[in-house]
């Protein structure tokens, strides 16, 4: 139960900090320089975490279990980071930009969850999705 709750708290706290940092990145900064420093920081933190994690495989052996998803995830993260940075530079407010992006994301993941992961989608979820769509319309007026 702890991990169940902690994981969501970590996501929310990290997303708050993420959006504050993206919105606060200087306009004059080259977006790719900002991303490079971001990823170097993330790589160092990940390496340190790896060294302290309990693993029965060596550093190089641990890569054998990976597949295409890690590479595609790298592309998607660059797109995500650049997208938010450009959105805030284009004038999206921090209180609205992330909300619109996350609601749109949630709506796009519904059919993926249903068709590819066989997740249920009952009446309550349908109503929730309808309210999200109504919210998107209202928030952008």
Topology:
Elements: H1 2-24, H2 31-52, H3 68-89, H4 94-117, H5 123-139
Helix pairs in contact: 4-5
Protein architecture, described:
There is one protein chain. The protein has 141 residues and is an all-alpha fold. Helices cover 77% and strands 0% of the residues. The protein is built from five helices and no strands. It has helices at 2-24, 31-52, 68-89, 94-117, 123-139. Helix 4 (94-117) packs antiparallel against helix 5. The longest helix is centred in the last third of the chain and has 24 residues, at 94-117. The radius of gyration is 18 Å and the shape is globular.
Mean pLDDT: 93
- Along the chain, the helix and strand elements come as HHHHH
Question: How far do the termini sit from each other?
Answer: 40 Å
Overall shape: globular
Output the number of helix runs.
Answer: 5
User: How is the biggest beta sheet arranged?
Assistant: none
**SSE class:** mainly alpha
Query: How large, in whole angstroms, is the Cα Rg?
Result: 18 Å
**Number of separate strands:** 0
Estimate the helix proportion, in percent. Answer: over 70%
Question: How much of the residues is beta strand, in percent?
Answer: under 5%
Q: Spans with pLDDT under 50 lasting ≥5 residues?
A: none
Observed structural traits:
141 residues; mainly alpha; 5 helices; 0% strand
Can you describe this structure in just a few lines?
With 141 residues, this protein is mainly α. The protein has helices spanning 2-24, 31-52, 68-89, 94-117, 123-139. Helix 4 (94-117) runs antiparallel to helix 5 (123-139).
């Amino acid at each position: 139960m702890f991990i169940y709750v902690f994981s969501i708290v970590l996501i929310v706290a990290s997303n708050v900090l993420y959006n504050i940092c993206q919105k606060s990145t200087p306009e004059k900064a080259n977006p790719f320089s900002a991303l490079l420093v971001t990823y170097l920081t993330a790589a160092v933190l990940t390496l340190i975490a790896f060294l302290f994690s309990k693993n029965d495989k060596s550093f190089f052996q641990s890569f054998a279990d990976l597949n295409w998803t890690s590479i595609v995830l790298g592309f998607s993260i660059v797109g995500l980071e650049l997208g938010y940075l450009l959105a805030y530079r284009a004038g999206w407010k921090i209180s609205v930009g992330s909300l619109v992006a996350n609601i749109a994301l949630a709506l796009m993941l519904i059919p993926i969850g249903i068709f590819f992961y066989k997740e249920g989608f009952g009446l309550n979820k349908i109503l929730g999705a309808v309210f999200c769509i109504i919210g998107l319309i209202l928030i952008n007026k």
